[in-house]
Amino acid sequence: MNVTALSPNFHIFTRFGVWLPPEWPSGWRRILYKTYACFVTVMLYSMFSFQFIGVFGSIGNINELVESIYTSATVFNLGCKIFNLLEKRRDIVKLLGLLEADICQIKSQAEKEIQEKCNRRIWNRTKFLCLFFETTCVTMVLTSTVKHIPERSLPLKAWLPFNYADGYTYWPVYMHQVIGLVYVGMIHASYDTFIVGVMLTLCSQLKILQYRNSEMSLLNVRVTTVAVVDQKMLEKEFVTNSIRHHQLLQQFAESFNNIIIYVIFVQYSVSSFVICVTAYKLVNLEFDNPEIIFTILYCTSMITQTFFYCWYGNEVILESANIGNSLYTSRWYSLNAGTVRDVTMVIHRMQHSMKFSCSPLFILSVDSLKNIMKVTYSTFSVLIKS
């Protein structure tokens, strides 16, 4: 299995200081990169810390509280994703190594076409999300040049232990937030498309398994063309490979779910909250306010994040549920009696779909997306009435 479709994500991770290149196991480059990674970590986590402290200073004024929280929640979400990448690095490498097994390799032109289509989908979504998130960040920076620079205020509301509005200290603090926003947008986009890419990679393997299962009815044709092949052994090998492939994909899905389990929870919680708060802010903005474009893009980006998680999680559920059907529709009944008995057991075994979740309440599916939007709308209604 070729995972080069995920290479752009790891290139972005590397450039933005959250993924040490595996070809740098030691030496001065490793030391230099570790220094750069520490700089990025301090920059982003300090930005979140100052924002988080600033939230407490806004308690008592609902508009200031909304202004403080709705961006700090996104930076907090990013902090969780960076921590997840650093903590689960070995698990991620091991996870992708599962797809290097021989049974996951391309065996025919049809399988190659399935994989190439998957690679194109991953690349297109990576480009889209990176462009969209960076457009949102650039819009915020441009908005701040109109609104915040003349007032000597910051794009993100934050507490600082000194008066940054006077003297030359304003520009270093301002650039700290601007550069931080660029990093926030790119790492968010790359991490989200990495998760989507892994899901699509799993979907492509499930489709390849479906294709191989559908070829079971051709075993009799192959046997008649090669007389020395024992039909029973050929059929047994086919069924065994199908089971092994399915078990490996189940292991892959379970391992990936364990890697992103708390990221799913944080993403769901933050998205629901931020969409609601951003919608509240949007309602209270005047149409000629320069922040309105950024607020719309920001709200849309949060919805897009959640949509990508749920949509492609739902695609994994559907593709995995079709594995048993692909066997059932393959004219398996025309094979040897022993093989027929084995296939019926395999069909029953493959009926269970693969799901990504952090609890029974948080499952990556279209239904969960609808529930999030319902909860968000209900909370938004309460805020409006208050």
Describe the structure.
It is a multi-pass membrane protein. The protein is mostly helical and 386 residues long. The protein has one domain (4-385). It has twelve helices and two strands; from the N terminus they run αααααααααααββα. It has helices at 7-15, 28-56, 62-87, 89-98, 109-151, 170-214, 219-225, 231-283, 291-321, 323-328, 337-349, 366-385, and strands at 357-359, 362-363. Strands 1-2 form a two-stranded antiparallel sheet. The longest helix is centred in the middle third of the chain and has 53 residues, at 231-283. It is elongated and about 85 Å long.
Characteristics:
single chain; 386 residues; mainly alpha; 1% strand; elongated
- Estimate nothing, just give the exact number of structural domains: 1
Order of helices and strands: HHHHHHHHHHHEEH
- What do the pLDDT scores average to? 83
| Helix percentage | over 70%
Query: What's the number of helices?
Result: 12
N-to-C terminal Cα separation, in Å? 55 Å
Largest beta sheet: strand ordering: 1-2
SS-based structural class?
mainly alpha
| Overall spatial form | elongated
Which band does the percent of strand residues land in?
under 5%
What's the count of strands? 2
Quick structural gist:
The protein is an all-alpha fold and 386 residues long. The chain is 76% helix and 1% strand. A hairpin with a 2-residue loop joins β1 (357-359) and β2.
Topology, please?
Blueprint: H1 7-15, H2 28-56, H3 62-87, H4 89-98, H5 109-151, H6 170-214, H7 219-225, H8 231-283, H9 291-321, H10 323-328, H11 337-349, E1 357-359, E2 362-363, H12 366-385
Antiparallel strand pairs: 1-2
GO molecular function, one term: odorant binding
Membrane topology: Multi-pass membrane protein
InterPro entries: 7tm6_olfct_rcpt
